[in-house]
């Protein structure tokens, strides 16, 4: 199933169904050799799924030495290790058959790959059987030339029901975040990028951003049209701090077709030094629009 009714409704509303069908031909179930090679070079994988107990949707990072994510079959990847024991998605990855979306993003080459499927625990981590595998264009991806792996341990997570002043500043300065959504048959993880300020903090409990023009598939907005649950992940690419948010999101459509997504925070989890990776400073994508004032 390339597109469900939610994505089709958005495509039809914006008059892009024919183009979406053309782009959708690039979606498959198999992991091609070039995709397998790409995965094997990555030190970071982002997951999106729903907590089986609360139903809350979260986006979570997993890191390891290149090779920790491997294609182990025509439709399967295996991940060595996993999320931290206190990560909101730890229960989901411990269950059999959890719908999960993944995105591997390489700032060095401005390439990204998405694989959506169902996860199962393994003795060394977890495996995912793919339902959909596809790549996206480099639009709105910031280039970071290199990274180094540091010997640092995560500090205790801070949980709250809205953003603190420092977290609001963190979001306002971000040039990248990851967005997890779900639908009846699965889950998806995607990327959003722009110049700092592209995400607005409208209040301690609400964020908003413009939905920039993309590939017209509208997988994320399609999911949100049917199920408003969503999870956001912000990374500090230097300090390794992560900010995970769960809540609900909705899309506002202007008469000219421009779109704004509004996200309402239900819970926030900030983990200082969560990731051992420190990336070089970004070169912003030339496709980034100037943030609205």
What distinguishing features does this structure have?
293 residues, alpha+beta, Pnp Oxidase, Chain A, eight-stranded antiparallel β-sheet, seven-stranded antiparallel β-sheet, 6 helices, Split_barrel_FMN-bd, Pyridox_Oxase_N
Polypeptide structure, described:
The protein is an alpha+beta fold and 293 residues long. It has a single domain (5-279), classed as Electron Transport, Fmn-binding Protein, Chain A (Pnp Oxidase, Chain A, Roll), CATH 2.30.110.10. It is built from six helices and 17 strands. The protein has helices spanning 5-14, 17-24, 33-40, 90-94, 165-172, 219-226, and strands at residues 44-50, 57-63, 69-73, 76-80, 98-106, 111-122, 125-136, 147-149, 158-160, 176-183, 186-193, 199-203, 206-210, 229-235, 242-253, 259-271, 277-279. Strand 12 and strand 13 form a beta hairpin. It is globular, with a radius of gyration of 18 Å. 40% of the residues are buried. The model has no long low-confidence stretch (mean pLDDT 96).
Summarize the structure.
Pfam families: PNPOx_N. This protein is of the alpha+beta class and 293 residues long. It has helices at residues 5-14, 17-24, 33-40, 90-94, 165-172, 219-226; strands spanning 44-50, 57-63, 69-73, 76-80, 98-106, 111-122, 125-136, 147-149, 158-160, 176-183, 186-193, 199-203, 206-210, 229-235, 242-253, 259-271, 277-279.
């Amino acid at each position: 199933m390339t597109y469900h009714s939610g994505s089709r409704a958005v495509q039809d509303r914006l008059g892009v169904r024919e183009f979406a069908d053309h782009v959708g031909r690039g979606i498959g179930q198999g992991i091609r050799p070039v995709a397998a090679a790409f995965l094997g070079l990555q030190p970071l994988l982002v997951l999106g799924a729903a907590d089986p107990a609360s139903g809350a949707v979260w986006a979570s990072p997993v890191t390891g030495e290149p090779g920790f994510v491997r294609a182990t079959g025509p439709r399967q990847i295996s991940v060595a290790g996993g999320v931290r024991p206190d990560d909101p998605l730890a229960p989901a990855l411990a269950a059999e058959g959890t719908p999960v979306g993944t995105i591997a993003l390489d700032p060095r080459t401005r390439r990204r790959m998405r694989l959506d499927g169902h996860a199962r625990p393994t003795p060394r981590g977890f495996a995912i059987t793919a339902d959909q595998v596809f790549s996206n264009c480099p639009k709105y991806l910031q280039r970071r030339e290199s990274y180094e792996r540091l010997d640092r341990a995560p500090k205790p997570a801070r949980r709250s029901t809205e953003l603190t002043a420092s977290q609001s500043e963190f979001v306002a300065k971000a040039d990248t975040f990851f967005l997890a959504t779900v639908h009846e048959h699965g889950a998806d993880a995607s990327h959003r990028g722009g110049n700092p300020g592209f995400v607005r903090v409208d209040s301690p409990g609400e964020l908003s951003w413009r939905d920039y023009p993309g590939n017209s598939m509208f997988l994320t907005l399609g999911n949100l049209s049917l199920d408003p649950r969503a999870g956001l992940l912000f990374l500090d690419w230097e300090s390794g701090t992560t900010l995970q948010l769960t809540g609900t999101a909705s899309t506002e459509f202007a008469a000219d077709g421009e779109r704004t997504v509004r996200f309402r925070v239900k819970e926030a989890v900030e983990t200082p030094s969560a990731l051992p990776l420190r990336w070089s400073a970004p070169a912003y994508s030339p496709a980034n629009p100037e943030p609205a004032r």
